[in-house]
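Fig. S4 source data, part A: sequence.
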Amino acid sequence: MSVVRDLRVLLRLGDFRRLLGVRLLSQSADGVYQVALATYVVFSPEKQTSPAAIASAMAVLLLPYSLVGPFAGVLLDRWPRRQVFLYGNLLRAALACCTALLILGSAPDWLFYASALSVTAVNRFVLAGLSAALPRVVDTDRLVTANALSPTAGTLAATAGGGLAFAVRILSSDSDAAVVLLGAALYLCGALASLRLGRELLGPDPSAYRPRLRAAVASTAHGLVEGLRHLGERRTAARALAAMTLLRFCYGALTVMVLMLCRYAWSDATRPGDASGGAGSASDGLALLGLAVGISGAGFFAAALLTPWAVGRLGPYGWMVVCATAAAVLEPALGLPFTPVPILIAAFVLGLVTQGSKIATDTVVQTEVDDAFRGRVFSLYDVLFNVAFVGAAAVAALVLPADGRSAVLVVAVAVLYASVALLLSSWRRAEGRCFT
């Protein structure tokens, strides 16, 4: 296969291999830490989990990416990127150890969330730095391939880290602190791995002109406004982003529902508000959640294989119509029984349609937006993508009952999927020049 051949060629490049090692360790640690945070909030026997608590955890996990992300590049163009990986991972390791101590000490929730927020805020600098450093270790002819393979490998590492976190938590008598410490150890390994790269190798060029920090931040904010204006002039890309935002909202709402089902409906754990205890046996629910995450990840992988073929035949809008329509039909059919097997099938379907739509949206934005504005538009895209997920969690917190069984939510999401399909169909007819 050409992908395997390209990867083999890239891995012969020593600096690329070392940078990839930093990415794999850093993102596997991210996967461990994020699962540790989620399971502590949702599955700790001493905590009375609610949809509102889940929404808070998702805000901590995702909002820093959106709020910090557009401005991370300003500092990454001033600091040696190798040092960002070194000190960023060391800082995250130390903060993760603090999080573990807070868990062991049953600290107030606000202090726990502050610690977790600090860890996830640093993530954006490390991930953006990994992308910014890639052209320094790969020649121009191989850069496109490296851009495709390196983030994919990082995503797989994060997924593997999440799976390892689920296994460790189950095997360590539901010890969330042990999982967090595993994440801290991986962050430390990522920091040590960065030392194999030269301090000046990854840039930025010390001779390059850099405006004052205040001017650079103001310029970034102004650039985002300009990107928004440009997007308003590119109706095709704006519509694709609007549709993707709605689809991401649906996925977020259903994610919270599945979390609550795993915590209460599919385990022996006591529901919030019950006076009979609370420890129960959450291990079965945790195992089902891990299975759902893995199956949804398989849907993401299937989308990566299927979408290029589907977009080639249907166009980006056409493929998004198919995805939204399939979700509108299958989501209520599989979701309303509120039993594990149909929900697990739905996890695969929704992973496929959500990621398939995202790949199609990426294609629309890349082809319709001028190159001079593409970075700024993708920054806005990142904000919309994560805010939609957190917003969905907040809405689900208002709708869902304690055990997660909500026919109203399932039907409302199905209606939203159907509405997106209808909107995309009408836009496809109106803009059929390259989307038929």
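Fig. S4 source data, part B ends here. The two ends are 30 Å apart (CA to CA).
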